[in-house]
Amino acid sequence: MNADTPVLDAAFKGPVGSFNLDVAFKAPLKGVTALFGASGCGKTTILRCIAGLHRLPGRLALGDRTWQDDGENLFRPPHKRRVGYVFQEPSLFAHLTVRRNLEFGARRAPGGNGTVPAVDFDQVVDLLGITHLLDRAPAKLSGGERQRVAVGRALLSEPRLLLMDEPLSALDRSTKDEILAYFEVLQREMNIPILYVSHDISEVTRLADRLVVLSRGGKVAEGSVGEVLERLDLQPMTGRFEAGVMLTATVKAHDDAFNLTFLDHHGQTLTIPAVDAAVGETIRLRVRARDVSLATQPPTSISIRNILKGTVIEVREEPDTAFAETLIDIGGGRLRARVTRHAVADLKLTAGMPVHALIKSITFDRRSLG
Amino acid sequence: MPDQGLDLAGLWSPIRLTLELATVTTVVLLIIGTPIAWWLARSKAKWKEAVAAVVALPLVLPPTVLGFYLLVAMGPDGPGGWIAGLWGERSLAFTFQGLVIGSVFYSMPFVVQPIRNAFEAFGDRPLEVAATLHASPWDAFWSVAVPLARPGFLTGAVLGFAHTVGEFGVVLMIGGNIPGETKVLSVAVYDYVETLRWAEAHILAGGLLVFAFVVILSMMLLEKRIGRAAR
Questions:
Q1: Cα B160 to Cα B30: distance, rounded to the nearest angstrom
Q2: Which among A79, A93, A95 is the nearest to B136, CB-wise?
């Protein structure tokens, strides 16, 4: 965290449903921070507390502005907090057209005060691709369109922080992907800090820079997405099936004939299906532990295109299961590989051992680091 | 049957009085019923249902019972008498103002209930959204809650108006039968029948029948249209 970047400083403590929430975290007011955890772990409550929609004992400061301080009996009401809130369901005002929905927050916005530039209506509408919907009633929109309007409405209220509460959970798979693409563009163009709540690790790794991992009302880890995902001990939280790591690599070349893109990762080459990124651009990839295999000898005559040299850092066997998790140093980055305990015994995998990590090309997620 | 000739001019006075009474009552009810409906819909107080029950009492109470208590309250020894004393009268009973007060109590559930239902139907979410978009609670009430509850307001206003037009027992108890002051339509019909002036009774009764039919039909069409718009 850069010392100059203003910070969201939040701490809340109190009963939520069947457990007690007790969480304190700081997030830079820059980029995307994800609150990640299983359903019902208190993520949404934290977001509601930050917006002022719910009140738990605690304290909350955004940069140099304090919004809640129980010692001084300070609690800023929600309408005086400069946050945008995107709810799980789009929650558009049914009695207003799309345009009037968008204008609702914009008209009541406190106005640019020098530090926050006034948000341009046409730019937001254009970025979200909702220009052709402006005169429609919310009831006539699809789920994805509604959520895009809801995001635009929140942005136009000129927030200093955008809170998003599982904004994609009510949408189907293809709509999710479409909206994620809009979010990426938005994040790049608007430069607004986002606090993003989700229980979907693929969403989080695609969007977030930092991660706060929660479990039953408490914080279990906090750090950059890369750091957190590499930790084997967090697996119960990050999920076995989707567990994996983030790699950053530079685009080296494209092969139009085979529709591939070659990436450089600290001297080793990665081959992935062609991506829309310029040569020299840095992109982010997600590699799931279950898609990585290990070999002690360099394999030949094999369909897998990505074979990376590395060293075993850690092997963690899971008692009473067939599996073990391993962490591999591939020089400037780390991979996780999920293999059987049988393989661990057979190959005598231990820390310090040189291995070859095999990754199927098709398993990359990408996100441009604009 | 005594031959008195048709008294059309005499018919007009109760019609005008009834429309005046129903209009004033509806306006008063919208003004005081809306905050009550809002409180009943939003409050988390445990005893709010007791208040709701008091509001709903006229639904089951015989109008003569309600009228009796109102008569006592409005009489020279009740609070109504004290209020009437402010402009030099002895009592609110048997006055137009008294009728308005009685009608407000009598028709209140018909106005409060639909508005409360409408406020409850959209839940907390739109108001939370409004708050995160910098709308103060007062602003959100007018710009979000009232427009969203519009069907409830329409239903409440129509039912309140129509129910006041049809009021009889309470009027009889607290208003009596003073032409131009408290003699409303329903009392006039009764009066005409009592005095065997069936022609006039027929005109008024038929008119009220058509009125009731039109009100109910338009309510049904309105609800159908709102239901369609919501889909």
A1: 9
A2: A79
> What's phi and psi for A326, nearest 5 deg?
-125, 155
Distance separating alpha carbons of residues A186 and A164, to the nearest angstrom? 13
Dist. CA A148–CA A238, nearest whole Å: 27
User: How distant is the Cα of B165 from the closest Cα of chain A, in angstroms?
Assistant: 32
Sign of CA dihedral A92, A95, A101, A106: negative
Question: Could you tell me the end-to-end alpha-carbon distance of chain B, in angstroms, rounded to an integer?
Answer: 58
* List of chain B residues whose C-beta atoms are within 8 Å of the C-beta of residue A104: 130, 133, 135, 143
Q: Would an 8 Å CB–CB cutoff place B44 in contact with chain A?
A: no
In contact, B34 and B201? CB cutoff 8 Å: no
Go through the domains of chain B in sequence order and give each one's CATH number. 8-122+149-230 (1.10.3720.10)
- What does the pLDDT profile of chain A (370 residues) look like in tens digits? 455 788 999 999 998 878 889 999 999 998 899 999 888 888 999 999 999 999 999 999 998 899 999 888 899 999 999 999 999 988 999 999 999 999 998 888 876 444 445 678 888 898 898 999 999 999 999 989 999 999 999 999 989 999 999 998 888 888 888 888 888 888 878 888 999 999 888 788 788 889 898 888 888 888 888 778 777 666 666 665 567 787 888 999 999 999 889 999 999 999 888 887 888 888 888 788 888 999 999 888 888 888 999 999 999 888 888 889 899 999 888 888 889 999 999 999 999 999 999 987 555 555 544 3
DSSP of A305-368, one letter per residue? -EEEEEEEEEEEE-TTSSEEEEEEE-SSSEEEEEEEHHHHHHHT--TT-EEEEEE-GGG-EEEE
As a whole number of Å, the end-to-end CA separation of chain A is 18
Alpha-carbon separation of residue A28 from A25, A61, A370 (angstroms): 10, 12, 18
Task: Name the burial class of residue A204, with classes exposed (0-12), middle (13-18) and buried (19+) by CB atoms within 10 angstroms of its CB.
Answer: buried
CB within 8 Å: B132 and A110 = no
Q: Are A213 and A219 in contact (CB under 8 A)?
A: yes
CB of A55 within 8 Å of a chain B CB? The answer is no
Residue to test with chain B: of A44, A67, A79, most B Cβ within 10 A: A79
What is the edge-to-edge ordering of all strands in the sheet holding A260-265? A268-273, A260-265, A244-255, A282-288, A365-368
What value, to the nearest 5°, has the Cα angle with vertex B53 and ends B48 and B55? 95
Q: Is A293 left (phi over 0), alpha (psi -120 to 50) or beta?
A: beta
Does the beta-carbon distance from B137 to A79 stay under 8 Å?
yes
Q: How many CB atoms lie within 10 A of CB A110?
A: 13
Does the predicted TM-score (pTM) go above 0.80? no
CA atoms of B151 and B223, how far apart (whole Å): 8
